Amino acid sequence: MAFAARHRSLTDPRWTWPALSMKGRAVAALRQRLGLLDTRAEAIADPQIPVAMMFLCLDEILDSCDHRWVIHMRACQDWLRLRRQLPSSSRSFQAEQSLVSFAERFFAFQDVISRTACGKAPHFGLEYWEDLGRGTDAQEWWMGCSTALANIIFRITELGRARDRKELSADTFEMQAGSLEEELQSLTYKNHQDYDGIPGDGLIRTSFELMRESVTLYHHCLLYDASPSTPLVATAIRKILQMTHELMEAGSFSGLAFPLFVAAVELDPLNDELILQHSDAALSEKRVSGRWFVLETLQTLSVCSLFNVPRTRAVIRNIWTMRDLRLEEDEATRARNDWNFYVSPYSSNISLA
């Protein structure tokens, strides 16, 4: 209830104080619950603890989206590590274990998708996504992508970090980057029959293609040094923003933070015109500025999303400003990796889940 009230307060200021009051009571109740547990093992075995951490994390993301939400992620990681050390007889029943598994996946996805922006070290390691990614290419609704795609995102980020630390030879890097690109292209959409009868196959397909196109753009910018002036980047951005437009026209607003961010930060400041196609063929095409479309989309998402729209908008606008100030860039600047130069330094602790 505390988190719901906090989200409501984004559009109705009357809920601000009730939300703060509910959060205070929730934290007090959590402390009381921990105090009633007799042993450390009981606290670690309690499946409600990571769920509480998850909602506290979401609250911090909505509030300011700074280092504080990362603190909850680290705390949950420590809790999960200690839980694995318990003997199996001390762990919860299967129904309770599902709560723990969901909280674990929530934090792991927050980690992997948000680190794309800043490139920091992972909290949930590669072994987690390797285990999770095998044979799981079906779409996870709340994540907006499959676990197989999340696996690829993780390895793209880590390959970029390894190159920056000069841990790989040029040949090894090129081979691994090419392998990741092939994996991205080989991912296939599964029709709605594989999703327990959930309707809206067209929207699901568009969402799948949107996320894959966005990850491909991220891959080229981070690993292949692509920039806004690269033809592939310009084409990908227009595809991403068009699909975003289509999903929003259809009333689908989830899973748009990462695609919108990736496209927005790589917009060409000298040529960002879009030609938006409407789902209704009777309506004419609409020519708009890419920056205008991004800002309008963020405004729409501000009332129906769980990521921090004001913080995301501020980061994007700051990156645009940095690009505008360097339109007459020199050769040394052009030789740098565009993502590492313009995006990563200004995107610390942003949440894109």
Automatic annotation (TrEMBL):
<keyword id="KW-0539">Nucleus</keyword>
<dbReference type="InterPro" id="IPR021858">
    <property type="entry name" value="Fun_TF"/>
</dbReference>
<dbReference type="GO" id="GO:0000976">
    <property type="term" value="F:transcription cis-regulatory region binding"/>
</dbReference>
<dbReference type="Pfam" id="PF11951">
    <property type="entry name" value="Fungal_trans_2"/>
</dbReference>
<dbReference type="GO" id="GO:0003700">
    <property type="term" value="F:DNA-binding transcription factor activity"/>
</dbReference>
<protein>
    <submittedName>
        <fullName>Uncharacterized protein</fullName>
    </submittedName>
</protein>
<dbReference type="GO" id="GO:0045944">
    <property type="term" value="P:positive regulation of transcription by RNA polymerase II"/>
</dbReference>
<dbReference type="GO" id="GO:0005634">
    <property type="term" value="C:nucleus"/>
</dbReference>
